[in-house]
Design goal:
By secondary structure, the chain is an alpha/beta fold. The protein contains 15 helices and 15 strands. The strands form 3 sheets. The chain has a 7-stranded parallel beta sheet, sandwiched between helices. It is globular, with a radius of gyration of 23 Å.
Length: 422
């Protein structure tokens, strides 16, 4: 595979392909040298290449429309996976620009950039196939529908709209999300990371089953089991020696149910278990911070903030148990990552997490903090049970392979490109 990342608009002529990755800028302000990368145009606009036109390799445009850690990782995994394939990937990612210090102006800036300028840029891109790696209705409405594939990671806001999970955020978030997912009905293919998401998209977005494709994510090599000696070193570095270390990894978004992790910690401490909670991701919001204070847990919670993959793998290894009480998930990266690092998991009994964890992890209802606490106690009190959970998790994680996923992506790309030229 060859890859290109470009400022401005990339040409698909082989003579213009860049031997080294250069950033693709979906902002409204590409650098001055962008003009050196040409775009072949027909009288009606940019030319769209056709599969097999000149016996050339398949050209796929990977489009990311917003900066988000999970989406960044997903896009990188796809690009890395195609390095040895006869597919030419063009990456298009949004630039990170300084935002106005005035909150109102920053919102206007974001709105114009995301809803006006980025779609205008995406409209002018060229490829055999367009893969939108975040389900963004703006981009999906301007690419050729017969050549477009969208990854729909979840439809959690639509579940909230049905009252299936708690939500007290702005209603316009839901309306905007519903408008965005309506674009899934016009594209050639929709990739879902689990069958749970596929069923939700089919029911809530009215997308026909034939255009839905379940392709499970793989696991990055950074997430691996470390030696017992290294694990103890990591625990000492965190200031944890004999205490039971609970871990929660997440953004703090409403559906992550952070309050349940705090309630589980309180239940464990009340029953005599010396436990601490380590959090990775966004800091606690005001509501959860107030709940932590109310429960008297300020001295028992350690927040590490956002960390890189290598550090995150170390934290997984140091932990005794991952708590993951989400109300809903599309996939659940932390469950897979924890299993790959040899960390037992207690997670919500919801469809997507059942697909990822299988029989390798323990489950409880999202708000049943008593059941979560019981599961943690049993894992800590029974060394044999914990060892078995570790081995089951390691075996389960091996079933998630990016090479298999890339095979399925390539097959879908070629199928979509072939149909588009008939």
């Amino acid at each position: 595979m060859s890859t290109g990342r470009f400022h401005g608009l990339p040409s698909l002529r082989r003579s213009d392909r860049c031997p080294k990755p250069i950033l693709a800028d979906l902002s409204d302000n590409p650098p001055a040298h962008a003009a050196s990368v040409g775009v072949a145009k027909s009288p009606s606009g940019p030319m769209r290449p056709t599969l097999g036109r000149s016996g050339d390799e398949l050209v796929v445009s990977i489009v990311q429309t917003r900066i988000h850690p999970s989406t960044d990782r997903y896009r990188r995994a796809i690009v890395d996976g195609f390095r040895e394939r006869d597919v030419h990937l063009l990456e298009h990612v949004p630039s990170i620009r300084p935002r106005s210090s005035a909150r109102k102006l920053a919102r206007i800036d974001d709105y114009v950039r995301r809803w006006v300028l980025q779609p205008a840029m995406v409209r002018r891109l060229q490829a055999d196939v367009f893969h939108l790696v975040d389900d963004n209705g703006r981009a999906a409405r301007v690419t050729p529908p017969e050549r477009t594939v969208v990854t729909c990671h979840d439809v959690i806001l639509l579940l909230a709209a049905e009252g299936l999970i708690p939500y007290d955020g702005p209603r316009w978030y839901i309306h905007r999300f519903r408008w965005g997912t309506a674009a899934l009905r016009r594209v050639a293919g929709v990739i879902c990371p689990t069958d749970a998401v596929r069923r939700d998209v089919m029911r809530l977005c009215d997308v026909e089953a034939a255009r839905l494709h379940v392709i499970r994510h793989g696991i990055d090599a950074a997430f691996r089991r470390l030696s017992d000696q290294r694990r103890e070193e990591l625990r000492r570095g965190l200031g944890i020696s004999t205490a039971t270390m609970l871990l929660h990894v997440g953004t703090g978004t409403f559906y992550k149910n952070v309050a349940a992790t705090l309630a589980t910690l309180r239940a464990l401490r009340d029953s005599g278990t010396d436990a601490v909670l380590v959090r990775v991701g966004e800091p606690l919001g005001h509501r959860d911070r107030a709940e932590q204070n109310r429960l008297g847990l300020n001295a028992s919670v350690l927040e590490l903030g956002r960390v890189g993959d290598e550090r995150l793998a170390e934290v997984y290894n140091a932990a005794d148990v991952l708590l993951f009480p989400s109300f809903a998930e599309g996939f659940g990266w932390p469950v897979l990552e924890a299993m790959a690092c040899g960390t037992p998991v207690v997670a919500s009994d919801i469809p997507a997490l059942r697909e990822v964890g299988g029989d390798a992890i323990r489950y409880a209802a999202p708000n049943d903090t008593g059941a979560f606490a019981d599961a943690v106690r049993s894992l800590v009190a029974e060394p044999g049970g914990r060892t078995a959970a570790v081995e089951r998790g390691l075996a389960r994680a091996k079933e998630f392979d990016w090479r298999r996923a890339i095979d399925e992506y390539e097959a879908l790309y070629r199928e979509v490109a072939a149909r588009a030229v008939r």
